């Protein structure tokens, strides 16, 4: 029986070495595939807590979370998802969204708290169909904002915002739709939310949501649109010998 198990395992390892097996991205600090829960699949345990009305529906990839206009997923800051993550360091927020426009005019894709106005927030405006990244720079500041006519009701689209210390960029379905000079913001966040809060809400679907501590480039944005699991690197084939040695023990 042991021999059969070893042969089966060896076959799997050889196939993995040939085809590649999904690895991890060290700069990914949170990843929410929303496959029936709000667990962080990045390995950093930045798990979310769902507040308000929500349900699981067919998504862009597998399941997606449906948030009503009172709902959000709340995340607490941690060593990896820290309170100054958007202050001056490189970052990326990437997600698939499908808004139904039942939220407020300004809907939050990502919200940073405490409640003082102007902490780092990624908006959509349903009336104008634009995307906007804002934060505190001596007051509430529009850091980067697209033209209108981009976001549509009841339609899946991929959105991303990046900062690399030189530029802010906003992407819609892989296209760079806005670019501005980078500005350092206040930071000091203690809580993050996927979805709305207070008088500015989000309603609709979200899927394949990821946060990175580096600015993805345009090619990476195009790749991550195919799914975060597709985007993740492949583990090097050199690990095969180590894995085989572990199996024989």
Key terms for this structure?
single chain; 249 residues; alpha+beta; Jelly Rolls; eight-stranded antiparallel beta sheet; seven-stranded antiparallel beta sheet; 4 helices; 15% helix; globular; disordered C terminus
Produce a short descriptive summary:
The chain is an alpha+beta fold and 249 residues long. Helix content is 15%, strand content 37%. It has helices at 2-19, 218-224, 228-231, 240-248, and strands at residues 28-32, 49-51, 54-58, 63-67, 72-76, 91-99, 106-113, 121-125, 130-136, 140-145, 157-163, 167-172, 175-181, 191-195, 204-212.
Helices and strands in order:
Blueprint (H helix, E strand, L loop, with lengths): L1 H18 L8 E5 L16 E3 L2 E5 L4 E5 L4 E5 L14 E9 L6 E8 L7 E5 L4 E7 L3 E6 L11 E7 L3 E6 L2 E7 L9 E5 L8 E9 L5 H7 L3 H4 L8 H9 L1
Antiparallel strand pairs: 1-15, 2-5, 3-4, 4-15, 5-14, 6-11, 6-15, 7-8, 7-14, 8-9, 9-10, 11-12, 12-13
How confident overall, as mean pLDDT?
Answer: 86
What CATH calls the topology of the largest domain is Jelly Rolls
Largest sheet: 8 strands, antiparallel
So, CATH architecture of the largest domain?
A: Sandwich
Number of helices: 4
Question: What oligomeric state is this?
Answer: single chain
CATH class division of the largest domain: Mainly Beta
Class by helix and strand content?
alpha+beta
Could you list the spans in which at least 5 consecutive residues all have pLDDT below 50? 2-22, 235-249
Principal-axes shape call: globular
Rg over CA atoms? 20 Å
Total E-strand runs: 15
* Distance between the amino and carboxyl termini: 15 Å
């Amino acid at each position: 029986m042991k021999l059969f198990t070893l042969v089966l395992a060896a076959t799997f390892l050889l196939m993995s070495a040939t085809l590649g097996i999904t690895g991890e991205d060290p700069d990914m600090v949170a990843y929410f595939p929303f496959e029936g829960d709000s667990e962080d699949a990045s390995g950093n345990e930045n798990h979310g807590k769902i507040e308000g009305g929500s349900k699981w529906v067919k998504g862009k990839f597998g399941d997606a979370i449906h948030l009503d206009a009172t709902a959000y997923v709340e995340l607490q800051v941690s060593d990896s998802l820290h309170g100054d993550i958007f202050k001056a360091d490189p970052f990326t927020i990437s997600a698939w969204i499908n808004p139904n426009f039942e939220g407020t005019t300004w809907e939050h894709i990502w919200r940073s708290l405490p409640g003082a106005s102007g902490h780092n927030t990624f908006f959509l405006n349903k009336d104008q169909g634009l995307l906007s990244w804002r934060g505190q720079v001596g007051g509430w500041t529009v850091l980067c904002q697209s033209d209108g006519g981009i976001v549509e009701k009841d339609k899946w689209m991929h959105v991303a915002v990046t900062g690399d210390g030189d530029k802010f960029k906003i992407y819609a379905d892989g296209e760079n739709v806005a670019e501005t000079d980078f500005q350092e913001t206040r930071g000091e966040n203690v809580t993050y939310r996927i979805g709305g809060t207070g008088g500015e809400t989000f309603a609709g679907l979200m899927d394949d949501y990821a946060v990175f501590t580096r600015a993805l480039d345009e090619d990476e944005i195009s790749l991550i649109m195919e799914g975060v699991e597709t985007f993740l690197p492949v583990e090097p084939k050199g690990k095969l010998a180590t894995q085989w040695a572990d199996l024989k023990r």
